[in-house]
């Protein structure tokens, strides 16, 4: 085997899984990046991946692979940057094991990420959320499961991976009702539940009647729902809800849109962005501020209402007559 194969194997087993204890999603994403890259090299050079040397993966080849992703596979700039991040992570690890390739590694690490457009998040308003949650058929087992899942999703803002990983033992429905989850970055957090979600979950858990370690929202065979299954059920119920709520037709909500909906509802209710960041499990408060405050036009409209129009005559504030205020508020 060449220098690349044992180094790449050690990177996944020792670095990612052993030292960093990366999540299965991270490992899978990095694995897929390297499968694509090695197959690209095989098609281009005819050299088997197990025969490659570190010198075969220079900056020129990596840049060509990134262009291939965008031009031939039609990946977005955001996906291209994610693939580049996985490649950089390996080369940073390889720099410690192969100092003889320091110049080559430095050139790969210098490949810049590509700027990409930041679109406003998609979220549902209150009437759209109500229509979506009411869409599942409560006369069927799957419908009752889906309705409980949607209640939890829009009220807690859990990521879809956190939602599917919930177990019966992660739910507390007594005083101080909440759900516990282990989220992105291996951070554990608890999210409170409102009364309506508690009632829905209590009815569902009585029917579900599983052990504490069993999945809270299982398939009909008892296994955990997959991410794609949750995406399908959200799309299915959104299509049903759109018959009575016309605005849903243009939004095509996804499971992540339910997370955005939760955040926007908290923001509109006046909850501080620091609390929203803790609620959603964001690493940095700036993520919450940049994503959600920018998306809510009503916040900008309120800010505009507080400003003085141009060329307006400045004046001293005079409070209105107390009696007139009383009559206006009747």
Set down the secondary structure blueprint.
Blueprint: H1 4-19, H2 24-45, H3 59-71, H4 77-97, H5 102-109, H6 126-134, H7 141-156, H8 160-164, E1 171-172, E2 178-182, E3 188-192, H9 195-208, H10 227-241, H11 255-268, H12 273-280, H13 285-295, H14 297-305, H15 322-328
Antiparallel strand pairs: 1-2, 2-3
Helix pairs in contact: 1-4, 2-4, 3-4, 3-5, 4-5, 6-7, 6-10, 7-9, 7-11, 12-13
Domain tally: 2
- Put simply, the count of helices is 15
Oligomerization state of this entry? single chain
User: What is the name of the CATH architecture of the largest domain?
Assistant: Orthogonal Bundle
Rg: 26 Å
What's the total count of β strands?
3
The CA-CA distance between the termini, in Å, is 84 Å
Strand order, main sheet: write it out.
1-2-3
> Given the helix and strand composition, which structural class is it?
mainly alpha
Strand content: under 5%
Q: Give the CA-based shape.
A: globular
Low-pLDDT stretches are none
Under the CATH scheme, which class of the largest domain?
Answer: Mainly Alpha
For the residues shown, what is the average pLDDT?
86
Largest sheet: 3 strands, antiparallel
CATH topology tier name of the largest domain: hpI Integrase, Chain A
CATH superfamily of the largest domain: Intergrase catalytic core
Structure overview:
- α2 packs across α4.
- By secondary structure, the protein is mainly α.
- 28% of the residues are buried.
- It starts with a helix and ends with a helix.
- Strands 1-2-3 form a 3-stranded antiparallel β-sheet, with no helix packed on it.
- It has 15 helices and 3 strands.
- It has 2 domains: 106 residues; 178 residues, Orthogonal Bundle (hpI Integrase, Chain A), CATH 1.10.443.10.
């Amino acid at each position: 085997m060449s220098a690349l194969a044992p180094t790449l194997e050690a990177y996944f087993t020792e670095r990612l899984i052993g030292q960093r204890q990366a999540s299965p999603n991270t490992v899978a994403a990095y694995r897929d990046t390297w499968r694509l890259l090695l197959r690209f090299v095989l098609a281009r050079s005819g050299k088997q991946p197990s025969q490659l040397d570190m010198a075969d993966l220079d900056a020129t080849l990596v840049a060509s692979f990134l262009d291939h992703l965008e031009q031939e596979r039609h990946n977005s700039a955001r996906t291209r940057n994610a693939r580049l991040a996985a490649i950089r992570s390996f080369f940073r690890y390889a720099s410690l094991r192969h100092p003889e390739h320091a110049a080559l590694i430095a050139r790969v690490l210098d490949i810049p990420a590509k700027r990409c457009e930041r679109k406003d998040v998609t979220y549902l308003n209150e009437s759209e959320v109500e229509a979506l949650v009411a869409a599942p058929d409560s006369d069927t087992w799957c419908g009752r499961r889906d309705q409980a899942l949607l209640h939890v999703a829009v009220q807690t803002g859990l990521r879809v991976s956190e939602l599917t990983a919930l177990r019966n033992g992660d739910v507390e429905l007594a005083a101080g009702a909440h759900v516990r989850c282990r989220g992105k970055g291996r951070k554990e957090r608890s999210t409170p539940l409102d009364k309506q979600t508690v009632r829905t979950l209590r009815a569902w858990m009585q029917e579900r009647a599983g052990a504490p370690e069993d999945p809270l929202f299982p398939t009909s065979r008892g296994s955990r729902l997959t991410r794609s299954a949750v995406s399908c059920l959200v799309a299915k119920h959104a299509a049903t809800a759109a018959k009575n709520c016309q605005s849903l037709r243009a939004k095509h909500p996804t499971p992540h849109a339910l997370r955005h909906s939760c955040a926007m509802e908290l923001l509109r209710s006046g909850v501080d962005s620091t609390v929203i960041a803790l609620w959603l499990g964001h690493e940095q408060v700036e993520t919450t501020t940049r994503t959600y405050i920018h998306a809510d036009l009503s916040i900008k409209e309120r800010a505009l209402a507080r400003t003085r129009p141009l060329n307006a005559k400045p004046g001293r504030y005079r409070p209105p007559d107390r009696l007139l205020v009383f009559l206006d508020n009747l």
